[in-house]
Specification:
Order of helices and strands: HEEEHEEEEHHHHEEEEHHHH
Number of strands: 11
Shape: globular
Strand content: 5-15%
Helix content: 40-55%
Radius of gyration: 19 Å
């Protein structure tokens, strides 16, 4: 089935040329590029407008930058469910985990003043439910691997703020320019949990050494944050219908290493 395409009128309203529109790889097969304008479905309009308002004026620094949203000719951030962003140079590199974490740290310092948005509590998708499971705010799925992790969970002292919960594949590098943060997935959790998710993703999916589970963090909460990152990812795979024996085999050594780290 062909990927949904924004209409010529929508592309024009965001200041781009419809004749130049082409489907981009990634982006779940729904993201289009027309010149320097990236168009994609907005999703939840409340969250989408909030993203746009924040990122339109968020100050950048030497540690990070973000794409800027583009207003339509009507002044709205979206038209018929489509939003537009400035194209940014660079590419993700999931092996540059510490650089991803550093960029995420700079971004999180820049947004630390923002209050908790109401839409976080209203979200009911696999990622939001799994986030709540990871933090024991919703009953955990009955799965042997998740049950093993759950038995090792202990309280975390780190304070929460807005974070980007999916950093690893959403930091673009175009050295020597600052890394670009894209596709902000907002959660209200400790900043270091974002780093733990990036580490867990890198080790599970991108061939990064298990040693990173230990060396990427030295704060007392780190082992617990890693365990909660694994709960988050494994529960999401279950809820999205993607969990199978191959997934279990991929996660088993990482879970074992994380449990050993937490037991020290």
């Amino acid at each position: 089935m062909p990927a949904p395409r924004p209409s010529d009128a929508i592309i024009t309203a965001f200041g781009a040329d419809p004749a130049a529109a082409r489907l981009l790889p990634g982006g779940r097969g729904t993201t289009w590029l027309a010149g320097d304008v990236v168009l994609r479905p907005m999703g939840d309009p409340v969250e989408g407008d909030w993203h746009s308002e924040v990122l339109a004026t968020l100050p950048h620094d030497t540690g990070f930058r973000t794409a800027r949203p583009i207003r339509s000719t009507s002044g709205a951030w979206s038209i018929d469910g489509w939003e537009a962003w400035t194209r940014m140079p660079g590419a993700a590199d999931e092996t540059r985990v510490l650089d991803v974490i550093a960029a995420g740290g700079a971004f999180h310092r820049a947004i630390a003043h923002l209050p908790r948005p109401d839409f976080i509590d209203a979200a009911d998708d696999p990622w939001s439910r799994s986030d709540r499971m990871a933090w024991q705010e919703e009953p955990l799925l009955d799965d042997p691997m998740l049950n093993r992790i759950s038995d090792a969970l202990r309280p975390v002292a780190s304070a929460s703020q807005l974070i980007h919960g999916d950093l690893l594949g959403n930091v673009l590098f175009a050295d020597p320019e600052p890394p670009t943060i894209i596709d902000w997935a907002p959660y209200w959790r400790p900043v270091r949990w974002a780093a733990a998710i990036a580490v867990a993703d890198a080790v599970c999916w991108h061939g990064v050494s298990l040693d990173l589970l230990e060396t990427a963090g030295d704060d007392p909460d780190w082992p617990q944050l890693v365990l909660r990152a694994l709960v988050f990812r494994i529960a999401t795979l279950h809820l999205a219908g993607w969990w199978n024996e191959a997934m279990r085999e991929r996660h088993e050594p990482v879970v074992a290493a994380a449990l050993a780290l937490a037991a020290r």
